[in-house]
Amino acid sequence: MNRKNYSLFLGVLFLSALSAMNPLKNIGQKACFEETLISKEEALSEIDTLKKYIEEVHPNPYNYVSKPLIYSEFEKIKSLIINDSISIYKHYNNVSKLMGLYNDGHTFAKFPREYYRLQQKFLPFKATINDKDKEILIQASSDSTIQEGSKVIAVNGIHTEQLIDSSVDLMSGETKEFKIKRIEYTLSELFYSQFGFCRSYEVQIESNNKQSVHYVQGIDFKSYKRLKNNPNDISTNNYSAKFLNNGKVCIIDFNSFRDLASFKEFLIKTFTKISNLNTEHLIIDIRDNSGGNSQLGDELFQYIANKPFNQYYKSLAKSGK
Question: How many contiguous H segments (helices) and E segments (strands) does the chain have?
Fold first, then answer.
């Protein structure tokens, strides 16, 4: 693969009447910037190489899906590439759909770095997704008129159900819940790659049983990162604790059982904050955890277990020359 367009890891109801009153000229404008193109030949070659590499590297690529189905879908995607060149974002969508078929959370496509390098404008809010009811709920917003807890009905005429369902097809993961979590992390990028909006947004929301439409400009990546950082949240390279609903809910998320000293310090800060905020519900998310030192699990259990415990009572090892 000459281009690193993807990486393999193992290990609203639109209100047209209101739209006419839109004061933002760029709403609905696609091709917000000159996108990088790759040739049809290169795109087809990368898709073939992707399948080859997955079969060579993955221990069991057809654990969740049959080989004939995968081969059929690869050919179907290739047949859709009819022009002499293709945008790297359309190529990302194609590759993501194929990698999503494997239902493996460690086999996925990375979003093109160009999007961040060109300083595109992100959706001005962070949100959580309720897939059961096809809802996108605002957690925080850069616009003071969009309140926490508001339900997003549509963005630029794209209904939330359409955005969620189409994005699931681009996600890799063993379960749909895992895929939904990934959508939350990359909602703005997925919105651009599929629908082309990246500067200004018409956000239709529902709050307290009343609907309203808000015309807002996108925000830069640094502002988006600040928006996602709750002042109550505690974060390190491997661990994070997010507090929601005025501190009533805490989500501990850690990606590996590594660095025991840092983890001990993280737990002290987190459970002190839990005590101070009178947190009622604790969620421990280890879906992305890659494993490591089980002593970190012992440290965590000391905070949540209500009686003495042992992870295991015996360890056996065999070594040979």
Answer: 11, 14
